[in-house]
Amino acid sequence: MDAGEITSNALKYPLTNFKKVLILGILIILSTLIIPGFLVLGYIFKIIKSTIEDSSELPEFEDWKTMFVDGLKVFTVLFIYSFIPWILIILGIWGAILPLLTVPGAGSLMDSSLSLNLISGISVVGLGLLLVINFIVPVAMANMIHHNRLRSAFNFKEIIGKIKKIGGVSYLIWYVIMLIIIWGMIYVSTFLIFPLLIGIIIVPLIILPYLIITLARSLGLLYIYEDSGHEYYRHSKQIK
Q1: Selected residue with higher pLDDT from 119 and 64
Q2: How far apart, in whole angstroms, are the C-alpha atoms of residue 57 and residue 65?
Q3: Is residue 26 part of a domain?
Q4: Which of 53, 63, 199, 210 could be joined to 193 by an S-S link, Cβ 3.0–4.6 Å?
Q5: Are 30 and 201 in contact (CB under 8 A)?
Q6: Tens digits of residue pLDDT in 163-181
Q7: Which of 52, 80, 63, 231 is CA-nearest to residue 148?
Q8: In terms of C-beta density within 10 A (0-12 exposed, 13-18 middle, 19 or more buried), how is residue 213 classed?
Q9: pTM attached to this predicted model
């Protein structure tokens, strides 16, 4: 099963139980209340875990306490990985704004071209770091879920080893395909929301949960992929 088959399997997966897609959509709509947002992340955890464990069915919405705790784990990993890059990016944005601010009688708050160049460089470093991290985070997340240990998301020896087993080219192809799917869904969502008021409901209720489930399923399938012979390592049975 190659990247194309992973994608095909993942795109069909949400359609196996559309009721669960709608339930996840309701949680997404309620995510402004904070707790449902962690439940959404917890369900992503369950999908990846069930896929790694050889299940071909969408997991049930049950054991809400565990889902919430798992959601906190996912949030923690995403927060830790993205914290430093976003701090650097924000510093760069703030540095771009400062020259536009003036104090009466004092002029610009930042007149030094050296300072401006330094802050611009910090922002570029932040963006570069974010790109690298976004490339690593999927496998780091799956590794944490597989071992059910938070520290496994930061075991870089295991993470790099897993990427090598997947195959660098195979992983890159998968990553690009997922980006295309994400941007495609964003385009469809934009097309629906602006001309059609009903799109405001359809996007979070159907399109966004469909995308989330597809990505989670795809990551689970990727994690159990090993490049030798282009086959999947299965614990007991093949993916149907």
Answers
A1: 64
A2: 21
A3: yes
A4: 199
A5: no
A6: 999 988 989 999 999 999 9
A7: 52
A8: buried
A9: 0.84
Task: Dump the DSSP string for 133-180.
Answer: HHHHHHHHHHHHHHHT-GGGGG-HHHHHHHHHHH-HHHHHHHHHHHHH
For residue 90, give its domain range: 3-232
Q: Does 134 map to a domain?
A: yes
- Mean pLDDT (whole number) for 35-41: 96
Joined together, the tokens standing for residue 206 give 């159907």
The number of folded domains in the chain is: 1
Q: Which segment of 40-54, 143-157, 179-193, 217-231 scores lowest on mean pLDDT?
A: 217-231
CA–CA separation, 155 and 151 (whole Å)? 7
pLDDT in tens, 207-234: 999 999 999 999 999 999 875 444 444 4
Mean model confidence pLDDT for the chain = 84
Other CB atoms within 10 A of residue 11 CB: 15
Residue 130 lies in a domain: yes
- Residue 95 is encoded by which pair of tokens? 């540095």
Task: Give the strand pairing for 225-226 and 107-108.
Answer: unpaired
Strand stretches in the chain, DSSP E: 102-103, 107-108, 225-226, 231-232
Kindly state the tokens that stand for 207: 């399109």
Q: Is residue 240 part of a domain?
A: no
